[in-house]
Amino acid sequence: MTRTAKRISAEDAANLVQPGMWLDYGAGLCQPDAFDTALGKRVQTLSGVNIRSCLTPRPRAVLEGDPEGRHITWYSTHFSGYDRKKHDAGIAHYLPVNLGEVPDYYRRFIDPVDIAIIKTAPMDAEGYFNFGPANLWMRAVVERAKVVIVEECAAMPHVCGVGTGVHLSEVDFIIPGDGQPMPTLPKTGVTDVDRAVARLIANEIEDGACLQIGIGGMPNTVCSLLAESTVADLGIHTEMMTDGIVDLFHAGRITGEKKQINPGKIVCTFALGSQYLYDFMHKNPLVELHPVDYTNLPHMIMQNDNVVSINNTTQIDLQGQAASETAGYRHISGSGGQLQFVRGSYASKGGKSFLCLASTFEKNGMRRSRIVLGLTRGNIVTTPRTDTMYVVTEFGMVNLKGRTVAERAKLLISIAHPDFQEDLMREAHENHIFPRGYF
Length: 439
Fold this sequence. Notes:
- Helix 4 (81-88) links the parallel strand 4 (72-76) and strand 5 (92-94).
- Helix 5 (102-108) packs parallel to helix 6.
- Helices cover 27% and strands 24% of the residues.
- The N and C termini lie far apart (70 Å).
- It folds into 2 domains: 6-176, Glutaconate Coenzyme A-transferase (3-Layer(aba) Sandwich), CATH 3.40.1080; 192-430, Glutaconate Coenzyme A-transferase (3-Layer(aba) Sandwich).
- The relative contact order is 0.11.
- With 439 residues, the chain is α/β, with parallel strands linked by helices.
- The protein has a 9-stranded mixed sheet with strand order 9-17-15-13-12-18-23-27-28, with helices on both faces. It has an 8-stranded parallel sheet with strand order 1-11-8-6-2-3-4-5. Strands 20-19-26 form a 3-stranded mixed sheet, covered by helices on one side.
- The protein is built from 15 helices and 28 strands.
């Protein structure tokens, strides 16, 4: 359907919202700011408005103006720190997804969106508004929206790739942005544990490997170590583009020449990091952003040989179940693409998947093991035991593929913190994880 775009103010755009509507704020860096500010000013006059979102990068006026959640219901397919805070306050809700399937959810299962509001780069000479480093499922949102509003942002990087924008003919309204710089992701400090885990993983990465790097200190520390190594001709096919990948490129470790699909290209679906990262991606033909069903579905991932996926987890039980998104009943992040990359890398010729974690954590002044007999009550299994391959802590690395339950338990206990190994062995015996006479 061809639309006739009209330039209006953010306030006029916010006045289009009526009680009971479903709005879509997009994901990550595509979330609108000027529109959100304008809608926040009239949030108390609304009721029953639902907003779908993902990875909120900065505070949202509609939530700050409705602290008890009486007017707005906020849904997220992956929590940022801000989303988590609002969930803890009871006014944000998680929508469980495998991230690579989200475009299909919009096209098959999610009711049409009343209004989609997407922050984009200013219109280019061909009449396109570029999504910037937030491709993901924005095309599917545009297809399913009754009304499409773009919020132009001069600071938004213009990215290369497939399905990276919306054409003027698909837009109903254009509003000006508020002039804010792009949100950035603070760099986390690197710990000795991060370095120890990263060192073990880096030693397993060979020339020509194709990397997926997850969010967090450990995966990005792997990038730092690889940048200082002699490994050559690395490729990138990942969900999230990170500062660490840019460092690897500048160190000369990334060529992409050994990839079977998109050779020579750094492939991702979104980015979140520093301005250094955004500047690298701006109009860079070596970086290709694709929709998330291209980057994340296992049958796509496996088309490259020697795929190495590196992701964090927060707890793992003695049978290899990994819980990466919750702390008991408290939701902290999301399923994301972890399981899809675990499966896609395993299916890749010569592929490997790594789940990494510190062996312990502190809670209420007490040190506790992240390797446990059974997952904490309420914890969600992100990666099933049947899919878990390599597990890495600062005390070692084990491969669970082809191992019995007893063998898995023995291996995982061997990389638990030594202070907890004796108790884990006793618990495993008491709960018949080890068959009689196993030792």
